[in-house]
Description:
Number of domains: 3
Order of helices and strands: HEHEHHEHEHEHEEEHHEHEHEHEH
Number of helices: 13
Radius of gyration: 22 Å
Amino acid sequence: MPDDPHTPCENPLWPCAMTGAVACLAGFEDLAVVVHGSSGCYFYPASLIDVPIYGTFLVENEVIFGTESRLQEVIGELEGRYDRIAVVNTCVPAIMGEEPGSLARDERVFIVDSPGFLGDLEAGYHKALAEIAPVVDPDNPGVNIDGLCCTDPFCRGNALEARRLLSLAGVPVATTFCLDTYAATRRAAPLTVGTNPDLASGVGRWCGSLLGLDAVSETIDALDGIDARPVREEIAWADARIRKACSKYLRRFDPPRVAIFSGRSYADLAAGMLKKYLDAEIACIAARDDPGVTDFAVIGAMIRDAEPDLILGSSYEQTLAGDAAFVGLTPPIRDRVLLHSRAVVGVEGALWLIEEILNACMNQNRRNREGSMVSPGG
């Protein structure tokens, strides 16, 4: 726990369990999320999650004399405005040994004990989803979508692309974890497809991932009794477009040497596509849940050792990129306006990723060429 109660227990390179729990819960529009902790514990997830959340903003005297009255006050202000209220317990009240579960009542208020020291984002996300305890309706004819997280800059785009592909195949969408309503979690379908296996919900039978064209094909084939032809046609069309664009690039430039920093599933997706379509050399893959990969100095050393032409990662890696091309693949992605619902899953996600990579590499090659043409005297 930090000495200053206003300091967040976060490593900025990859959020902790508290932020993961908040990100999971904030995806349910009929659920109020209260961060029970200091201002720092509130503002860090609030800076990554583009939906309203609430906080108790604990100060020193509450840390000394107890936090229950402050939590009761915040819950009282939210009752009547939301169907349910979820309280995420953070490091300070957890270490104090307080048990806010006594405030839960009538299933309208529930507590997610997910302090930062519990683990990483994925641990907190799964902890919150376990508290929600989704219910499967065996008669629901739809398919769930899971793996969506409000800290992910591709969250909304991934949801839209997953729904589009299922619609092409004539499959109704059931519950979307986690970008839906709490009520929808009480009638989830028996089948689930994923947008990010790192955040698989465990609800129903897993039918596969939508990350990458090969994965989409395998997942659609795993869904019985559907018309997979329109999806297969889109996959073939997208594969041909990608091959044509990458072949044109390789006639002008060498395959890139690449360093990738993100969650495990996104990293594997990017590495697979880079090798398949651009014959890229993957100098290093650093998944955020690997030991030591959330240390900025370690990442800097990895980039220096790899000497990449292209880096995929967050704005933190971008600051270390030097002359390398850069593509944002994981939060935070700063210093640019992000309004469009971009996907990294499905057909549109594959097209977007290769498009971003090719444009970044071509622009960097152009800058390098122009720089080499300028004499030292200018």
